[in-house]
Amino acid sequence: MDTLHRTDVTRRGFLAGVALVTLIPAAPASATPDELAAAIKELVGSAKLNPGRVTLDIPPLVENGNTVPMKVSVESPMTAKDHVKAIHVFNERNPQPYVMNAYLGPRAGRASVSAHIKLRESQKLVAIAELSDGSFWTASANVIVTVAACVEDLVQ
């Protein structure tokens, strides 16, 4: 065997090499208020966001961000000519600005959706209703989270 091309790898040398290439996981990135605004602009384009008609019901203070109840309802007759086409929810501090999209039609009967969501930290949420006439209506709420989702194990 050629001694110039032979490499003796010891267990200690191998582990030292592995330690050098071990990656340290970074904390997940957070969406920013600018990303929230960009996500909303992508949805509505140049259309005006009208305040009102939308109710975003979420607790203003939650102890645990892992499961936060949220309900969005929109005032609408839900007829073929006048109904809510979609309800969109955005946030400003989770890893991405999109929380949910719910698509509705006149046969839904009422424009109301509810879900349990995760919140990484205290932040603002924005709900937007897209109506059949092309208009957009909105409401927002601020939520204070005392124990953030996904980091609870680190705190204990």
Q: Strand content of the residues, in percent?
A: 35-45%
The profile of the biggest β sheet is:
6 strands, mixed
Order of helices and strands: HHEEEEEEEEEH
What's the CATH class, please?
A: Mainly Beta
CATH topology category name: Immunoglobulin-like
Any idea what the CATH superfamily is called?
SoxY domain
The helix content, as a percent range, equals: 10-25%
Q: How many E-type strands?
A: 9
CATH architecture: Sandwich
What integer value in Å does the Rg equal? 24 Å
Number of domains: 1
CA-CA gap between termini: 56 Å
Query: Kindly state the mean pLDDT as a whole number?
Result: 84
Tally the helices: 3
* Strand-pairing-aware structural class: alpha+beta
* Shape descriptor: elongated
List low-confidence stretches: 18-27, 152-156
Give an overview of the whole structure.
With 156 residues, this protein is an alpha+beta fold. It has one domain (29-155): SoxY domain (Immunoglobulin-like), CATH 2.60.40.2470. It has three helices and nine strands. It has helices at 11-21, 33-44, 152-155, and strands at residues 49-51, 54-57, 61-64, 68-74, 84-91, 98-103, 111-117, 123-131, 136-147. The strands form two sheets. Strands 1, 3, 5, 6, 8 and 9 form a six-stranded mixed sheet that branches. A three-stranded antiparallel sheet has the order 2-4-7, with no helix packed on it. Strand 5 (84-91) and strand 6 (98-103) form a beta hairpin. It is elongated, with a radius of gyration of 24 Å. The N and C termini lie far apart (56 Å). Mean pLDDT is 84; it is low at 18-27 and 152-156.
